[in-house]
Amino acid sequence: MTNPPIPAITKRAPTIDFIDQRLPKHHPLFATQTVQYDVMSGQYQAVGASNSGLVSTAASNAPSSSNSLVSRPEVADLNAMPFWNEIFADSMSQFKSTPEPKGRSKSLYDIREKTDWHAVYDTLQMARKKYETSGGIIRDMRRKVADRITPGAEVARIGSKVTPQDKIVTPILGAVELILGAVEIAALVRKKALAGLDDMVPVFSKVELFLSMFKEDANIRNASIDLTAVTLAAVERTIGFFISSQFARTGKALLSGEDYQKGLIESFETIQTKSHDLWEQAQNSHMFESHVYYQEDRRIQAQMGAKIDLSTLVAVQGFNAVNNLLNDLAQQMDQKIDRMLQPIRQENISLRIENDRLRSTSPTRTSMWLPPPQPIPGLVSSWSINQETLRNIIDVHDLDLTDLALVQDRKEQLPSRDRSRAEQVTNTQLFRSWIVSPSSTKLLIHWDSRLPKMIAEVSPLTVFCTTMAQALRSNPRFLSALWFCGQHIDAYEFGARSGGQMMIGSLLDQLLRQWDFNTEPLHNYIGYDSLQKGDVEALTALLGFLIGQLPPEIVLFLIIDGAALFEREEVQDALPVFLSLIQLVADNSVRATVKLLITSTPGTDIIRGSFEEEDLILNVDSLPILTAASEERMVRELEGELHGDVP
Q: How far is 614 from 18, CA to CA, in rounded Å?
C-alpha cells in the first residue's frame, strides 16, 4: 500500500492551501480556474486582473519601438553621421548670425558658405596644413618659445586623448582634435583644456545616440543645433589661428602669457557647456517617455479590469469570504493554543535560567594550596544568562535567512530596468558619503514618484539591500543586521511574525549570532520579567547594551527595507524602534561605528522627519538607467568602497 504524496511546503498561509487543494473536491465553485490568490494584495482575484498578467499585456500593447530591442549602433567613421547632417543647415544659419572675422569671406578658408560637415572639416585640414608647412627661422623660434610655455610631453598627451581608436567618433570630436593640436598654450590654460577634454570625450560619445533616440523631440534638436553652432565658431577661431602671421603668433605668445589664445580655449569650454545642456535635455526626454508608458500601462490595466464578468466577481467574493472565515478561525485557535502554551514556556525558561544559575554557583573542590573562595556579594538577588539562552528567550531564530532566501527566489521576476536604477544608488554622492564616513551616520532612500513593479512586497530596493548584506557579511570587520518590513506586515495571518517587537528581536538575534557578548552584567540593566514577556522597551535596552560592548574597530550596518509599511496603524509599536535606531547613531558613548540605512517603496511620511533637516534623503526614481542590472558589478563596487575607505 503506497502512502499518499506529501504536499509541498509553501510559505503561504494554511488557509490558502486548504482552499486551493482541499475545497475543490467538495464543491465545484472552488474548482474554477478563473480565480487565484494574489500575494501582493492578500486577496483572491480574477486571473485576468493579476499584476503579472496586466504587466505582460501592457508590455505587449506598448509601442513597437520599445519591444524591438535593437543594439545601439557603433559610430566608428566620420562619414556615418546622418543625424548631424540633418541639423547642419539650421546650425550654420545660427552660426552665421555671429560676427565674421574681417576679410575671411574672400579667402579660401571661409566656412560660412559650406553645406556639410565634410567641407568644414576639409577647410580646417587645409588651414592646419598651411600652419605646419610654412615657417623657416621664424617657425623654429616659435617652436622654442612654445616649448617654454607648454612642455612637448603634455602636447603629446593631449593628442593621445583623441586618437581614432575611440569607439565613437563625432565630427565635433574630430574638430576638437585639431583645436587641441593647434594651440600651444600657457600652463594654467593647458590644464583647463585637459580637464575639459577629459569631461567632454564621454559626453560627445552619447550625442549621436540622443539624436537617433529622440528624433521628434524639439528640445533635443534645439540643443544639438546650439552645440553644433558653437562648434562651428570654435572651428572658425582655430582656422584664424592657423592662417595668422607666424610673427604675430610668436609675439602674442610672448606678451600674453596665460591669456594667450584665451578666446580659443573659451570656445572649447562653450562646446563643453552646450554638450552638457544636450545631455540634460536627453535625460528629461527619457523621463517624459517613461511617464507616458507608465500612464499607458495603467490605462490598459483599467480596461482589463472592466472586462471581468459577473460570474468571476461572484467567485472572487466567495473565495475571499471563505478565506476570511478560515483566517478568523485560525486566529482564534492560534490565540487559544498560545494561551495554553504560555505557562509551559515560562516554566521552561525559568527552569533553564535556574539551571544556568545553579551551574554557575555550584561548589567545587578547592585546592589545599589555595584559600577558600570569597562569597560574591548580591548573588542571591541577581540573575545571569548565557548567550544561547538569550536567543531562545527572544525566539526569532534565523528569521533573516528565511527572508533573504525568499528575496533571492523572487528577484528575477522584477524588471531589469528597475533593478538597474536601484543599483545606481552606489554611484551617488549621498550613498558614498554614508558608507565611507569614519563616524556613525544614517541615510534614508525613497522610491516615491513612479513606483516600480513589486512581487510579494519585494521591490528593487529590497534586492539592493540583499546584495549589500551579502557583500557585508563576507568581511569579518563588519557586522550587519537587516529587516524586511514587507515580509512581516500581516499581523492577522496565521503564525504571523510582524511588528516592532519582531523587528528588534530579529536584529538582536542576528547580533548574537555574529559576536560573543558578555551577558553576565545584563541583570543590572534589564528586568528578567520584561525580557521574558518580549517588552519592546526591554528589547531596545538590550540592543543598546549589546552594541555598547562592540570595540571601536567594528563597523555595524543596520539595514531596514520597506519602512513605510511599518508606519501603519496596526504596527504602531514599530515607530519607537525606528526612533531608538536613529538615536543610536547619534549616541557618542557607542564606541563602534554604527551605519543605519532605511529604504522604502513608497516613501515614508513620519520617519522622513528625522532625515530631512540634514538632507539625508536619496530619491531613487530621479536616478538615470545607464546600464543593465548586474549584482556582480554592484558587489564589486561595494567591496571597493568598503575595503578601501571604511575605517
A: 51
Cα separation, 523 vs 533, in Å, equals: 15
Amino acid at 511: L
Identity at 344, one-letter amino acid code: I
Edge-to-edge strand order for the sheet containing 593-600? 478-484, 555-561, 593-600, 441-446, 617-619
pTM greater than 0.90 (yes/no): no
Q: pLDDT for 52-104, tens place per residue?
A: 443 344 344 444 444 444 555 554 444 445 666 677 888 899 888 888 888 88
Name residue 618's beta-bridge partners: 445
How far apart CA 400 and CA 406 sit, in angstroms, is: 10
Structure-block grid coordinates of residue 168: 565613437
CA-nearest of 271, 249, 274 to 261 is 249
Q: How far apart are CA 237 and CA 269, in angstroms?
A: 13
| Phi, psi for residue 418 in degrees, rounded to 5 | -70, -40
- Under 8 Å CB-to-CB from 169, ≥6 apart: which residues? 75, 76, 77, 78
* Backbone φ, ψ for residue 216 (5° rounding): -100, 5
Q: What domains sit in the chain, N to C, each tagged with a CATH number?
A: 82-284 (no CATH), 416-645 (3.40.50.300)
Nearest to residue 589, comparing CAs of 553, 624, 632, 550?
550
- Hey, how many other C-beta atoms are within 10 angstroms of the C-beta on 107? 12
pLDDT tens profile 220-241: 788 888 888 888 888 888 787 7
> Across the strands, what pairs with 441?
595
Name which of 478, 453, 455, 457 is nearest 468 in CA terms: 478
Greatest alpha-carbon pair distance for the chain in Å reads 118
Give the strand pairing for 555-561 and 593-600. Answer: parallel
552: helix, strand or coil: coil
Cross-strand pairs, 38: 43
